[in-house]
Specification:
The protein is of the alpha/beta class. The chain has one domain: Succinylarginine dihydrolase (L-arginine/glycine Amidinotransferase, Chain A). It contains 17 helices and 15 strands. Strands 2-1-15 form a 3-stranded mixed beta sheet. Helix 2 runs antiparallel to helix 16 and helix 4 packs across helix 5. The radius of gyration is 20 Å and the shape is globular. The N terminus is likely disordered. The chain binds N~2~-(3-carboxypropanoyl)-L-arginine. The site of N~2~-(3-carboxypropanoyl)-L-arginine (SUG) has 23 residues, from loops.
């Protein structure tokens, strides 16, 4: 266990993009997923883009871990739906009779690690351990398959129960829909100091939701996660239904925060003035929150969502006195979003500079730089206790790059997934990855 206020760092766990990355149109309310349905994906480019982002962060001095892809297709899921015979027969029958179910079984959606879990650092938890709750992701069938493997992986990466408590997902029921850290922001004076935990939710479980796009997170789920973690200073905030209706299916599409800074679009929260007031009150005596709000007049919500400006990573870089915004390339290509990014970096505010990364393959499914990572604040002792085999070193980066170049296709459509060769390729890639991760990364 760690003492409150011990020096701590914010590590990132990034989802390694799986070999079956494709555009299956599985997420209603996620405009990019819907727009790119059936498009040609490039799994090899996708995984290399993700690895390049991880390497960038590691090179900036931020501890970086890798969260492996899940086994796909999920044959246990398909067999439970009554498809039988050999694996090839199961797969073919599923594609022929129920392509949306087949698409769910093949999805590489575990890459979006921000949805893997919600994390409460030891400085904020009741028992002084790091708490991680796998997210049930019940709002989407393909994503609801993830949490058992996710919880198992988190236990492998954070094995020591004197430091870490990994919780299974909340019961998989719509009343308790939980999307993980994509709807959670922690503000603090410094990572190891006590923080304020913002939990954003879309709807109340017992109030009928009549809007066309789903509100994935319930207030009841957010409260349950905060309760089971013993999270100090929780602040529950409702997402603006208008933002969800415009395509902000997670709060992290319109808001990101780090240290004392909350960077968000004017329309992100139902009541922004009440939000600021609640956060100030929760932070009272700890730190002065800095609100960087972008107005609808300066950046219309549609541009915020198309560019994913707020789905940037906001990080503290060792040796730099202001925060760095790691933004998707798409921001640089959207004149309005780009102007906001430049203005903010040029101001005297908490964000000192912007750096762009190319994660286009993920972006086409609605996953920006922030979606691809799960933040875990760790004290030095906790960092030492984390499984070193999953830490991205130069050697592991090199080996994963060679592995991806060998095993991944550079062209894939959902229609290709009926091919039994894909079953074999996916399995071979995963077996080779298991081998690679079980050997020391220094070799
Ligand atoms: O849950 N897309 C993911 C994107 C998740 C983004 N994560 C965060 N905002 N933190 C989702 O909607 C699309 C899959 C497809 O259509 O093939 C998808 O699952």
């Amino acid at each position: 266990m760690s003492g409150v206020g011990a020096p701590a760092v914010e590590a990132n766990l990034d989802g390694l993009v799986g070999p079956t990355h494709n555009y299956a149109g599985l997420s209603p309310g996620n405009l990019a997923s819907q727009t790119h349905f059936g498009a040609l994906s490039n799994p090899r480019a996708a995984v290399l883009q993700g690895l390049a982002k991880m390497k960038l962060l590691a090179d900036l001095g931020v501890p970086q871990f890798v969260l492996p892809p899940h086994d796909r297709p999920d044959f246990a899921f398909l067999r439970s739906l009554g498809f039988g015979g050999s694996d090839a027969q199961v797969n073919e029958a599923a594609w022929k009779t129920a392509p949306l179910l087949a698409g769910a079984a093949w999805s590489a959606s575990a890459m979006w690690a921000a949805n893997a879990a919600t994390v409460t650092p030891s400085a904020d938890s009741a028992d002084g351990r790091v708490h991680l709750s796998a997210a049930n992701l019940v709002a989407n069938l393909h994503r609801s398959l993830e949490h058992p493997q996710t919880a198992a992986q988190l236990r492998t990466i954070f094995p020591d129960e004197s430091h870490f408590a990994v919780h299974d997902a909340l019961p998989s029921q719509p009343h308790l829909g939980d999307e993980g850290a994509a709807n959670h922001v922690r503000l603090c004076a410094e990572h190891g100091a006590p923080g304020v935990n913002l939990f954003a939710y879309g709807r109340d479980a017992y109030v009928p939701w009549t809007h066309p796009f789903p509100a994935r997170q319930t207030r009841e789920a957010s409260e349950a996660v905060a309760r089971r973690h013993g999270a100090h200073r929780p602040v529950f905030l409702r997402q603006n239904p208008a933002a969800i209706a415009a395509g902000a299916f997670h709060n992290d599409v319109v808001c990101v925060g780090a240290r004392t800074c909350l960077f968000y679009h004017q329309t992100a929260f139902e009541d922004p003035a009440a939000m600021r007031d609640k956060v100030r009150r929760a932070a009272d005596g700890l730190f002065e929150p800095q609100f960087v709000e972008v107005s609808e007049a300066e950046l219309p919500l549609a541009d915020a969502i198309a560019s994913y400006l707020f789905n940037s990573m906001l990080i503290e870089v060792p040796g730099e006195d202001r925060l760095v915004l790691i933004a998707p390339m798409d921001v640089a290509e959207n004149p309005l979003a780009h102007a906001v990014a430049e203005r903010i970096a040029a101001s005297n505010g908490p964000i000192g500079r912007v750096q762009y990364v190319d994660v286009r393959e993920s972006m086409r499914n609605g996953g920006g730089p922030a979606c691809l990572r799960l933040r875990v604040v760790l004290t030095p002792a906790q960092l030492t206790a984390a499984n070193p085999g999953y830490r991205l070193t130069d050697a592991l980066h090199r080996r994963l790059t060679a592995w991806a170049e060998h095993h991944y296709r550079d062209r894939l459509t959902p229609a290709d997934l009926i091919d039994p060769a894909m079953i074999r390729e996916s399995r071979e890639a995963m077996n080779a990855l298991d081998d690679l991760l079980s050997r020391p990364a220094s070799t």
